[in-house]
Amino acid sequence: MAATIFIPGLIAVSVKAPADQNFSLLGYCRDGVAIRENVRMRPIYGDEGGGPDGIPVDFSYLGEFHEVRLELYKYDGEVLAQVSNRLSTSNKLRTMVFEPGWMIRSAGDYFLLKLETEMRYMQATPPPPFKRTYLVAIPTSPIEYPLGPKEMLTVLEFTCLPDATGVLFSVT
Asked: What is the pLDDT of residues 87-115, one digit of tens each?
Protein backbone atom coordinates (compact mmCIF):
# COMPACT_ATOMS: atom_id res chain seq x y z
CA MET A 1 0.00 0.00 0.00
CA ALA A 2 1.34 3.40 -0.96
CA ALA A 3 1.70 6.13 1.62
CA THR A 4 -1.20 8.57 1.44
CA ILE A 5 -2.48 11.56 3.34
CA PHE A 6 -5.22 10.56 5.75
CA ILE A 7 -7.84 13.12 6.73
CA PRO A 8 -10.48 11.63 9.03
CA GLY A 9 -12.84 14.53 8.42
CA LEU A 10 -15.40 16.00 10.78
CA ILE A 11 -15.56 13.92 13.96
CA ALA A 12 -18.87 13.69 15.81
CA VAL A 13 -18.26 13.24 19.56
CA SER A 14 -20.99 11.29 21.35
CA VAL A 15 -21.39 9.90 24.89
CA LYS A 16 -23.68 7.62 26.85
CA ALA A 17 -23.96 6.08 30.29
CA PRO A 18 -23.30 2.32 30.39
CA ALA A 19 -27.01 1.45 30.82
CA ASP A 20 -28.29 3.84 28.13
CA GLN A 21 -29.49 2.41 24.82
CA ASN A 22 -28.29 5.21 22.54
CA PHE A 23 -25.44 7.65 22.30
CA SER A 24 -26.16 11.38 22.59
CA LEU A 25 -24.25 13.82 20.41
CA LEU A 26 -21.97 15.89 22.65
CA GLY A 27 -20.69 18.09 19.83
CA TYR A 28 -17.89 19.00 17.44
CA CYS A 29 -14.33 20.20 18.06
CA ARG A 30 -12.70 23.39 16.86
CA ASP A 31 -9.53 21.77 15.55
CA GLY A 32 -10.09 18.02 15.66
CA VAL A 33 -9.95 15.53 18.52
CA ALA A 34 -6.56 14.93 20.15
CA ILE A 35 -5.87 11.35 21.28
CA ARG A 36 -2.82 10.49 23.38
CA GLU A 37 -2.12 6.76 23.66
CA ASN A 38 -0.23 6.08 26.91
CA VAL A 39 1.59 2.91 27.82
CA ARG A 40 3.03 2.15 31.25
CA MET A 41 6.25 0.18 31.48
CA ARG A 42 8.69 -0.49 34.27
CA PRO A 43 12.38 -0.77 33.41
CA ILE A 44 14.21 -3.93 34.50
CA TYR A 45 17.84 -3.33 35.41
CA GLY A 46 20.48 -6.04 35.53
CA ASP A 47 24.18 -6.63 35.35
CA GLU A 48 23.90 -7.14 31.57
CA GLY A 49 23.05 -3.43 31.26
CA GLY A 50 25.47 -2.13 33.89
CA GLY A 51 23.38 -2.81 37.02
CA PRO A 52 21.04 -0.34 38.73
CA ASP A 53 22.96 2.66 37.35
CA GLY A 54 23.08 1.31 33.79
CA ILE A 55 20.56 0.92 31.03
CA PRO A 56 17.48 -1.30 31.29
CA VAL A 57 17.89 -4.84 29.98
CA ASP A 58 14.15 -5.17 29.45
CA PHE A 59 10.81 -3.54 30.22
CA SER A 60 7.81 -4.92 32.07
CA TYR A 61 4.51 -3.97 30.40
CA LEU A 62 2.00 -2.62 32.95
CA GLY A 63 -0.95 -1.60 30.78
CA GLU A 64 -2.31 1.16 28.59
CA PHE A 65 -4.81 4.00 28.69
CA HIS A 66 -5.76 6.79 26.33
CA GLU A 67 -6.43 10.47 26.93
CA VAL A 68 -8.89 12.18 24.61
CA ARG A 69 -8.82 16.00 24.54
CA LEU A 70 -11.78 17.93 23.14
CA GLU A 71 -12.03 21.64 22.38
CA LEU A 72 -15.75 21.88 21.73
CA TYR A 73 -17.05 24.95 19.92
CA LYS A 74 -20.48 23.50 19.08
CA TYR A 75 -22.20 21.22 21.57
CA ASP A 76 -25.44 20.14 23.20
CA GLY A 77 -25.62 22.03 26.51
CA GLU A 78 -27.65 19.32 28.29
CA VAL A 79 -25.23 16.57 27.29
CA LEU A 80 -22.27 18.75 28.28
CA ALA A 81 -23.89 19.36 31.69
CA GLN A 82 -24.13 15.58 32.22
CA VAL A 83 -20.46 15.13 31.34
CA SER A 84 -19.48 18.12 33.50
CA ASN A 85 -21.19 16.37 36.41
CA ARG A 86 -18.37 13.79 36.02
CA LEU A 87 -20.56 10.86 37.11
CA SER A 88 -22.77 9.23 34.47
CA THR A 89 -25.30 7.41 36.66
CA SER A 90 -25.28 8.94 40.14
CA ASN A 91 -27.84 11.51 41.19
CA LYS A 92 -25.23 14.17 42.04
CA LEU A 93 -26.28 17.77 41.50
CA ARG A 94 -23.96 19.81 39.27
CA THR A 95 -23.61 22.40 42.05
CA MET A 96 -22.38 19.88 44.64
CA VAL A 97 -19.29 17.75 45.19
CA PHE A 98 -19.48 14.04 45.92
CA GLU A 99 -18.05 11.92 48.71
CA PRO A 100 -14.24 11.72 48.61
CA GLY A 101 -13.17 8.21 47.72
CA TRP A 102 -16.09 7.46 45.37
CA MET A 103 -14.94 4.72 42.99
CA ILE A 104 -16.07 5.89 39.55
CA ARG A 105 -15.17 2.87 37.43
CA SER A 106 -16.25 0.30 40.04
CA ALA A 107 -19.57 2.10 40.56
CA GLY A 108 -20.25 2.19 36.82
CA ASP A 109 -20.24 6.01 36.85
CA TYR A 110 -18.17 6.36 33.69
CA PHE A 111 -19.22 7.16 30.11
CA LEU A 112 -18.81 5.42 26.79
CA LEU A 113 -17.21 7.83 24.33
CA LYS A 114 -17.74 7.49 20.58
CA LEU A 115 -15.65 9.32 17.98
CA GLU A 116 -16.91 8.90 14.45
CA THR A 117 -16.39 10.54 11.07
CA GLU A 118 -19.52 12.34 9.98
CA MET A 119 -19.88 12.50 6.22
CA ARG A 120 -21.97 15.50 5.19
CA TYR A 121 -21.05 15.74 1.53
CA MET A 122 -20.49 12.39 -0.09
CA GLN A 123 -17.62 12.29 -2.54
CA ALA A 124 -17.23 9.81 -5.37
CA THR A 125 -14.57 8.02 -3.30
CA PRO A 126 -14.89 9.16 0.31
CA PRO A 127 -11.92 8.68 2.64
CA PRO A 128 -12.07 5.70 5.00
CA PRO A 129 -14.13 6.73 8.03
CA PHE A 130 -12.67 6.91 11.51
CA LYS A 131 -14.68 5.19 14.20
CA ARG A 132 -13.63 4.43 17.75
CA THR A 133 -15.72 3.77 20.86
CA TYR A 134 -14.02 3.89 24.24
CA LEU A 135 -15.78 1.57 26.69
CA VAL A 136 -14.68 3.27 29.93
CA ALA A 137 -14.23 7.04 29.58
CA ILE A 138 -13.93 9.25 32.66
CA PRO A 139 -13.79 13.07 32.44
CA THR A 140 -10.77 13.59 34.71
CA SER A 141 -9.23 16.90 33.67
CA PRO A 142 -10.31 20.40 34.67
CA ILE A 143 -13.12 21.61 32.42
CA GLU A 144 -12.31 25.02 30.96
CA TYR A 145 -14.64 27.56 29.39
CA PRO A 146 -14.42 31.30 28.82
CA LEU A 147 -17.17 33.75 29.61
CA GLY A 148 -17.44 36.91 27.56
CA PRO A 149 -18.54 38.32 24.22
CA LYS A 150 -16.92 35.58 22.05
CA GLU A 151 -18.08 32.05 21.28
CA MET A 152 -17.78 29.67 24.20
CA LEU A 153 -15.03 27.12 23.60
CA THR A 154 -15.26 24.33 26.17
CA VAL A 155 -12.18 22.18 26.78
CA LEU A 156 -12.40 18.81 28.47
CA GLU A 157 -10.40 15.61 28.55
CA PHE A 158 -11.42 12.01 29.08
CA THR A 159 -9.14 9.34 30.52
CA CYS A 160 -10.08 6.07 28.82
CA LEU A 161 -9.38 2.78 30.58
CA PRO A 162 -9.78 -0.86 29.53
CA ASP A 163 -13.05 -2.52 30.53
CA ALA A 164 -13.25 -5.63 32.74
CA THR A 165 -12.25 -7.85 29.80
CA GLY A 166 -9.19 -5.75 28.88
CA VAL A 167 -10.74 -4.05 25.84
CA LEU A 168 -9.73 -0.38 25.61
CA PHE A 169 -11.84 0.57 22.57
CA SER A 170 -13.81 -0.95 19.73
CA VAL A 171 -13.82 0.11 16.09
CA THR A 172 -17.30 -1.12 15.16
From this structure: 887 676 667 777 788 888 888 889 999 99
Residue 52 resides in a domain: no
Nearest Cα neighbor of 104 from 17, 35, 168 is: 17
pLDDT digits (tens, 9 = 90+) for 67-86: 999 999 999 999 998 898 88
Runs of H (alpha helix) within the chain: 77-84
The continuous run of DSSP H or E covering 46 comes out as none
- When pLDDT is averaged across residues 36-50 and rounded to a whole number, the result is 96
C-alpha distances in Å from residue 147, one per residue of 6, 9, 27, 33, 156: 35, 29, 19, 23, 16
- In this structure, is residue 53 part of a structural domain? no
Domain count, the chain: 1
Return d(Cα 138, Cα 155) in angstroms, integer.
14
In a domain, 97, yes or no: yes
Full domain range(s) for residue 127: 11-34+67-170
Minimal CA–CA distance to 105: which of 164, 156, 62, 63?
164
